[in-house]
Amino acid sequence: MRPQPSSAKPRLLLPALLSSLLVMAACTTDSETANTLAANRNTQQAEVPAGSGNQSGGAVIPADDSTTGDVSADSSPKQIPCSNNDTTTWCAGIAVESIAPSAKHIAGVPEADGPNTRNQKFGLGGYGDVAGLGDPSKLNISAGDATGNYTNPEDLGQEQAINVRVMYLTIPGKPAVLFVTLDAAGTGNLIQKGIKTTVSKATGVPIDNMLVGSSHSHSAPDLHGLGGGVPATWLSCTPEEAALIGCGEDDKWTGGLYQRAAAAAKRAKDQAVKVRLETATQEVNLNGTRSPKAVPDMTTDQALTVLRAVALGTDETVATLVQYAAHPTILGSDNRLTHSDYVNATLRTVEKALGGRALYYNGPIGDASARDNIPNSCDKPDGNIYTVGSENVKKAYCRANSYGKSLGGAAVRLINNSDLRKPVDVDLAVGHRTAVLPVTNPLFVGAGAIRAFNRYYNFVETPADDIPQINMLRNSLPQLAPTASTTVSRITLGKPQNGKGLEMATIPGEGRNGLGQLLRKLAYGPQSKGKPMMLLGLTHNSFGYIIPEEEFGGPLPKNSGYELIYEETVSLGPLTAPLLRYQAYFPLFNVAPEFYAPAYLTACQGSPDSDACLVKILQFRSPGPADVMNLPNEFQR
Asked: How confident is the model at residue 516 (pLDDT cuts 50, 70, 90)?
């Protein structure tokens, strides 16, 4: 979450902690339900056939917004289905489902809240706004409820709003991996559990091997409970639930998020074909630092990495996975329609140029904003085609679409560059670790006490939580949140050390570049720059900002442009990054903690004047006499 970029000084954005959310997080479904949903749901979105784009190595991005090929059904007639006895090839499949809410969900659904009933609307995850926190007289809390779905004027209808996308990848005889991305600001562990349990029943893929990540669009649903929340029937709507509570009556809404994710995953698995994998990575200057520097050499992670699955025997693209780091906050808080921000435009650009379908993971976005070189036409009311909302919103849609096309075009050029594109050997290794993290942020502790996290997070899970009655009780009581646990994963495709593979690591929140660069060094050593690695942010969990300890606290007050620290207020606390290192990342990358010393200490051995040395960092963050004289009045009292 982050205040929206503008030419004016950014406002602080904090969660609207007055949300009080009750109602059980919904049931799971089985494979029969997923089959019925995939076959019969009237709102199922069209699929672009694999291989509908140019594969000649210099793909041209179409100038218009039309899709290519027959989008009436999934179709890959020339591709070779996977077989269980062929352990020498990769198998991959991909599917997309719209998760745009119904009109009923937008209007609000009556839900129990203790002894009372309240109207649960569809909250957007990035728009709980607290302005002027430094001055209590200016405190202004507002929740950002959606007013509809963005479907105009692009050509994919409801799919233009928000989606769940699933890529199935395996080597026959080995456990499969599911890459699951959804348009959401963040995904709490209870929502993660609902998705993974339902999808596992439909596909048989182990729960830990489902890498459920959030795009972090601020115009997407609030699945962490701090921006208003969402109706329970949007999360889950099995046929049984539809019969009991009518969740499928409005706008032909059939199946909730959990069921739609399961339907997409099963379709991706059932349609998997034999493929070869190829990857490419390169730094791309499409993001910029969005936070005041806490260390002198603070930069963003600009590595763009692409993984493509190409059907054997046809040279047709089946699936493309793109990873970059940039906050999807171009639309701004004036927008109140569900939207993926720049993400969908990125993926549609890739799909039209390469064929198949695509999905996107955000990387270490804690300090990265989209750097959009906006065409002048976006600033001219008569020069853009966007017809929804105020002039500012129309311009924002144009800007988000423009940036998405730029990023998608960069991904296409990258994977089509034969000098940068590398094959991925047929080898798969998956590892997981659990990290237990203390919750020291008093705002998070307070949010748990007023039940804001209920139905989205359960900070202290026990085996008894699988009993429905216990879940109902949990959702009616305040939560004490002393600790939080999360899965962290490492996935190794092929042989990265030999130049024929790709490393992946998950980040359970909004990591900063300092954490991202550490992970790259753990994977490849000091010479990690330019090596293929995907950092899957907001995956397995969404624990706010993950800030390296040398950066925690931001720069101390310097000059009149200083504003109160934001990221630390949306973080579990300063121990999150170091404990993730020691409990998860070091074991996953086979690094003994005693052989690792943080760079802010080792840099001092070479030269205390180094920008990476703690001595220089502390000097950099301390205000001098001139800075003190220029501080706002509230800091001089």
From this structure: very high
- Give which of 62, 56, 69, 53 is closest to 405, Cα–Cα: 62
Q: How far lies 309's CA from each of 228, 320, 532, 593, in Å?
A: 38, 6, 16, 36
Closest by alpha carbon to 138, among 226, 12, 237?
A: 12
Tell me how crowded residue 15 is: count the other CB atoms within 10 A of its CB. Answer: 27
CB 35 within 8 Å of CB 239 = no
Contact present, 494 and 501 (Cβ < 8 Å):
yes
User: Which range, of 4-8, 167-171, 600-604, averages the lowest pLDDT?
Assistant: 4-8
The residue written with tokens 């109706």 in the block is 231
What's the rounded Cα separation, in Å, for the pair 413 and 618?
A: 42
169 vs 90: CA distance, rounded Å: 7
How far apart (Å, rounded) are the C-alpha atoms in residues 35 and 103? 25
Per DSSP, what are the bridge partners of residue 500?
495
E strands along 383-442, which residues?
422-424, 428-438
147-184 tens-digit pLDDT: 989 886 665 666 788 999 999 999 998 889 999 999 99
Phi, psi of 239 (to 5 degrees): -55, -35
The DSSP annotation for 189-253 comes to: HHHHHHHHHHHHHHH---GGGEEEEE---TTSBEESSSS----HHHH---HHHHHHH-TTSGGG-
- Report the 10 Å Cβ neighbour count for 495: 14
The DSSP bridge partners found for residue 279 are 307, 422
Note the pTM of the prediction, 2 decimals.
0.82
Beta strands in 66-162 (DSSP E): 90-98, 109-113, 116-120, 129-131, 140-142, 148-149
Q: What is the pLDDT of residue 245?
A: 67
pLDDT tens for each residue of 413-466: 999 999 999 999 999 999 999 999 888 876 776 666 656 677 777 766 655 556
Cα–Cα distance list, 477 to 20, 22, 26, 602 (Å): 10, 9, 18, 47
Helix 391-415 to helix 343-354 angle (10° resolution) is 40
